[in-house]
Design brief:
The protein is α+β, with helices and mostly antiparallel strands and 585 residues long. Helices cover 44% and strands 14% of the residues. A hairpin with a 2-residue loop joins β3 and β4. The longest helix has 40 residues. It is globular. The N and C termini lie far apart (81 Å).
């Protein structure tokens, strides 16, 4: 594998899951630490088992457990979020959650323990070399007397048995991570000369003008305090928080760091500190999971602006960019896609047919008829057209509407060819690589009531669905439902989201009707149908539903469109329970 590909997952990680140019797979350096095992309550960070003959041999064993509190972590995170949160602010909030800081702090403690042990080991080697040189002064006589048991078969057998036992002990030590010789393989920044690690990354981020982190003082992190050995300190004074922020900025500037001459030169020589770069791998995975969690929070809170910022943060963190805006980034991304996948390889979804309404029942499937892909696509297209023509009138008493879209992935063929070619180059079974593919998109739907000429009607209160609750403020609805997320919110957080929806104009522009993900797990899939259920409006009239589709992988490839629905006044249906009660009377 080329060194550019190999190092892509080190300084900030891969710049995109699909970009072989910056890479995702790396040849892992000898592990100095074994990292966090997933658990709801406890994550075990396995201690460094390598021992030395130095002064730390009898030292107290390092505690390798971190007790986590997911509930407190979620509460901290949601109270850092606001409708106007920026992508950077969201990433800073994730970097400073209690559990994330605790895990990183444990990594730092283990790394410091390893450095101490290696320094002791090196001192021990220096003493051993000194003693050996003294012994050589008295060991120059090649004609000395032979050992008494040199020709003794029993002595030779015992010697051989001892050697075999030592070899077996070494094999066991390597298998269990207790091999003393690992000190010769693991290179540590600050101990071994020329090794690159956290300090190197921070120095280069400073030169690039992105350290300290930009706009940090404009976020909640500015006034946040963190416990450090019983003292309350700021973010930049806490080693765990500082490292998380360094890893965050390293990820966002991966394009520059991964191609830095010093890093590309250090890779082949093994001069990469695993106590930092291995930790970045685990950190990226954790941040990815937490970004998905914040997106669910935004949808529960119905905040369109917050959801869009989180989706932008996801793309920035995956690709390795400080922003999703700007011609320079967009040009770079499109050129990179075209270079790797060809002119038709720039990712794009084509929305061919769209339907929003109450569809007629699904037609029965034709048994025993095999259709080509083209025939299947045409059949699906005709079905949606038929639904548009035959759908019944949407009414205020319908339980749900359906949004259906026929989607074509314009880049499917180019991506598939490149994936198969990559498998062939690397000797990987194609089925394994194709099964691991993941392409995520997210759909956000908003609604507004309009007059016949399309002018928005500001008096509409945004009521959809259950007439008993949906006309209320959304935050009041969450409170009435005793929603778990609402119970985590502090008064200031509640107020900020209430303000977001305090006017009908804000309701129409900023309130999500529904947020829905869809994931492509087959790189070769070219077409497909996406179906989402929506609650119908409670008032009769004309409505516009704004549909926004955003990628969680690519830059500037989203889609926006509007569907108009006429809603009639429905006839209220009596509940079966009411009918039964009347019969009883």
């Amino acid at each position: 594998m080329a060194i550019e590909e190999e190092l892509a997952a080190k300084a900030g990680g891969s710049s995109l899951p699909l970009l072989a140019g910056l890479g995702l797979v790396i040849a892992l350096i000898v592990l100095a630490l074994r990292y966090i095992q997933t658990s709801d309550k406890v994550k075990a960070v396995t201690e460094t088992n390598t021992k030395s003959g130095g002064s730390t041999a009898g030292a107290k064993k390092l505690d390798n457990k971190v007790t986590l509190n997911p509930q407190a972590d979620a509460a901290y995170l949601v109270n850092c979020l606001r409708p106007d949160s920026t992508p950077l602010g969201i990433l800073y909030a994730i970097a400073t959650t209690p559990d994330t800081v605790a895990v990183t702090s444990k990594h730092l403690a283990m790394a410091a323990d390893l450095r101490d042990k290696k320094r002791d080991h090196l001192k021990g080697k220096e003493k051993e070399a000194s003693h050996k040189s003294m012994d050589d002064l008295f060991d120059d006589d090649d004609d000395g007397w032979a050992e008494d048991d040199q020709d003794d078969p029993a002595a030779q057998a015992a010697k051989k048995a001892k050697e075999e036992k030592e070899k077996e002990a070494k094999r066991l030590a390597k298998a269990t991570g207790k091999d003393v010789t690992d000190f010769n393989k693991v290179k540590l920044e600050g101990v071994d000369e020329g090794v690159l690690g956290q300090q190197w990354v921070m120095d280069n981020l400073t030169k690039m003008g992105v350290w300290p982190p930009p706009s940090l003082n404009e976020t909640f992190v500015k006034d946040s305090k963190f416990d450090l050995d019983g003292k309350s300190v700021g973010a930049m004074d806490h080693p765990g928080v500082q490292r998380n922020l360094i890893m965050t900025m390293g990820r966002l500037n991966a394009k520059q760091l991964n191609t830095h001459p010093e890093l590309t030169a250090a890779g082949p020589k093994g001069l990469i500190d695993p106590t930092y770069f291995q930790a970045t791998m685990e950190y990226r995975q954790r941040v990815g999971q937490m970004l998905e969690a914040t997106l669910r929070m935004a949808c529960t809170l119905r905040s369109y602006r917050l959801a869009v910022s989180i989706l932008d943060a996801i793309v920035m963190f995956k690709i390795g960019l400080m922003s999703v805006d700007g011609e320079e980034q967009l040009t770079w991304f499109k050129d990179l896609m075209a270079k790797q996948y060809g002119p038709s390889g720039v990712p794009k979804l084509v929305i061919e047919e769209k339907f929003l309404g109450v569809p007629t029942p699904e037609p029965s499937k034709e048994a025993g008829v095999d259709k080509t892909e083209a025939e299947k696509k045409e059949a699906t297209k005709n079905k949606i057209v038929q639904q548009i023509m035959q759908t019944k009138q949407v009414t205020t008493t319908d339980k749900q509407m359906a949004l259906e879209m026929q989607i074509t992935r314009q880049h499917a063929e180019s991506f598939t060819k490149e994936k198969l070619a990559m498998c062939q180059r690397q000797g990987i079974p194609p089925q394994i690589a194709l099964q691991s593919y993941r392409e995520a998109w997210f759909i956000l739907v908003r609604a507004k009531k309009v007059s016949e000429d399309g002018t928005p009607i500001p008096e509409w209160d945004g009521a959809l669905g259950d007439a008993k609750t949906s006309a209320k403020s959304h935050m009041e609805l969450l409170k009435d439902k005793n929603d778990p997320l609402y119970k985590m919110l502090e008064p200031a957080s509640i107020k900020s989201f209430e303000k977001e929806f305090e006017s009908t104009a804000h309701n129409m522009e900023n309130k999500i009707v529904i947020g829905w993900p869809f994931v492509i797990s087959n790189v070769a899939q070219k077409t497909g149908k996406v179906k989402i259920h929506l609650p119908p409006p409670l008032e009769a009239g004309k409505y516009e539903f704004n549909v926004t589709i955003k990628s969680q992988e690519f830059l500037d490839v989203g889609e926006d469109f509007t569907l108009v629905v006429d809603v009639a006044k429905g006839v209220e249906q009596k509940d079966e329970e009411d009918d039964e009660s009347k019969k009883d009377k």
